TrEMBL record:
<dbReference type="InterPro" id="IPR003439">
    <property type="entry name" value="ABC_transporter-like_ATP-bd"/>
</dbReference>
<protein>
    <submittedName>
        <fullName>ABC transporter ATP-binding protein</fullName>
    </submittedName>
</protein>
<dbReference type="Pfam" id="PF00005">
    <property type="entry name" value="ABC_tran"/>
</dbReference>
<dbReference type="InterPro" id="IPR032823">
    <property type="entry name" value="BCA_ABC_TP_C"/>
</dbReference>
<dbReference type="GO" id="GO:0005524">
    <property type="term" value="F:ATP binding"/>
</dbReference>
<feature type="domain" description="ABC transporter">
    <location>
        <begin position="1"/>
        <end position="250"/>
    </location>
</feature>
<keyword id="KW-0547">Nucleotide-binding</keyword>
<dbReference type="InterPro" id="IPR027417">
    <property type="entry name" value="P-loop_NTPase"/>
</dbReference>
<dbReference type="Pfam" id="PF12399">
    <property type="entry name" value="BCA_ABC_TP_C"/>
</dbReference>
<dbReference type="GO" id="GO:0016887">
    <property type="term" value="F:ATP hydrolysis activity"/>
</dbReference>
<keyword id="KW-0067">ATP-binding</keyword>
<dbReference type="InterPro" id="IPR003593">
    <property type="entry name" value="AAA+_ATPase"/>
</dbReference>
<keyword id="KW-0813">Transport</keyword>
<dbReference type="GO" id="GO:0005886">
    <property type="term" value="C:plasma membrane"/>
</dbReference>
<dbReference type="InterPro" id="IPR051120">
    <property type="entry name" value="ABC_AA/LPS_Transport"/>
</dbReference>
Length: 259
C-alpha cells in the first residue's frame, strides 16, 4: 500500500499535509504521534472513510483514492476502530459473522434452494472460518455471549476477530491496545505478531504504547501536526533527536517494552 503526497483539509483546518509513505507486504508498520497529529485521519484515508483533498492512495498497485469502503474491503483492506463499533445486542459469533458478509456468494436463486445444499454449505464454510478465528483469539468461552455485556478488553478482541473475518491482505488497527491492562496488551501484541507471521497479514497500526510499538513494528512513521517528521526502523526512529524530544522524553530515558 502506498500513500502519495496525501493532504486532507476540513474547511480551513489541515489534518494532513503532503504525507507520503509505503507499507510493504508482510510487515507491521506503525504510525505514531501525539493526539491531533493526523494518525486516524491517515488511516481513514487508507480505508476509504475519508477522501484525500490532494494526493492518492494505491493498494496492490491500483489507485483506490476514489474507491468506497466496501470495495476496498473486497480488495483486501480490513480495519478496527479506535472507538468500538460492535453490535452490542448481537452475540460474539454473530458479530464476527458480519465480517464475512462481503464474502457470501449465494444469490437469490441459491438462497431459495438453501436446503438443497448451496447456501447451506456456504454458511457452514463461513462458520468454520469463524470458529478458527475464535480459537485463534482464545474467545471460545464467550462465543455465545452478547457483545455489549463483555469487558472492554474482550470487546476489543471481538472487534479484531470481526476484522480478521474479512481475511484481509492489509489490516488497519486503530489503537488496538487502548484502555487495556498489561496482561491484555501482552495478549494483543502476541495476536498481532501471529497474524503477521502465521496468517500472512500485513499490518498498519496506530498505537500510543511505545513499548509495544518498538517491540513489534518492522517500520514506524512519525506524524506531527499532520506532517511526516520521521520514518524508518524502530532503531532509526528511536535515535531521531526530534522524535525522542517530542514523543519519547529525554534522550537518556529508556523505553519500557511490553512484549
Amino acid at each position: 500500500m502506498e500513500a502519495e503526497r496525501v493532504s486532507l483539509r476540513f474547511g480551513g483546518v489541515r489534518a494532513l499535509t503532503d504525507v507520503s509513505f509505503a507499507v510493504r507486504g508482510g510487515e507491521i508498520f506503525s504510525i505514531i504521534g501525539p493526539n491531533g497529529a493526523g494518525k486516524t485521519s491517515m488511516v481513514n484515508c487508507v480505508s476509504g472513510r475519508y477522501r484525500p483533498t490532494e494526493g492518492r492512495i494505491l493498494f496492490d498497485g491500483q489507485d483506490v483514492t476514489r474507491t468506497g469502503t466496501s470495495r476496498r474491503a473486497a480488495l483486501g483492506i480490513g480495519r478496527t476502530f479506535q472507538n468500538l463499533a460492535l453490535f452490542g445486542h448481537m452475540t460474539v459469533l454473530d458479530n464476527i459473522m458480519v465480517g464475512r458478509h462481503h464474502l457470501l456468494k449465494s444469490g437469490l436463486l441459491r438462497g431459495m434452494a438453501y436446503w438443497l445444499g448451496g447456501a447451506q454449505r456456504e454458511e457452514l464454510e463461513h462458520r468454520r472460518e469463524v470458529e478458527q478465528i475464535i480459537d485463534f483469539l482464545e474467545i471460545q468461552h464467550i462465543r455465545k455471549a452478547t457483545a455489549g455485556t463483555l469487558s472492554y478488553g474482550l470487546r476489543k478482541r471481538v472487534e479484531l476477530a470481526r476484522a480478521i473475518a474479512l481475511r484481509p491482505k492489509l489490516i488497519l488497527l486503530d489503537e488496538p491496545m487502548a484502555g487495556m491492562n498489561l496482561e491484555e496488551k501482552e495478549d494483543m501484541a502476541r495476536f498481532i505478531i501471529d497474524l503477521n507471521e502465521e496468517w500472512g497479514m500485513t499490518v498498519l497500526m496506530i498505537e500510543h504504547d511505545m513499548g509495544v510499538v518498538m517491540d513489534i513494528s518492522h517500520r514506524i512513521m512519525v506524524l506531527d501536526f499532520g506532517r511526516r517528521i520521521a520514518d524508518g526502523t524502530p532503531e532509526v526512529v528511536l535515535a531521531d533527536e526530534h522524535v525522542r524530544r517530542a514523543y519519547l522524553g529525554e534522550a537518556d530515558e529508556p523505553v519500557e517494552r511490553v512484549a
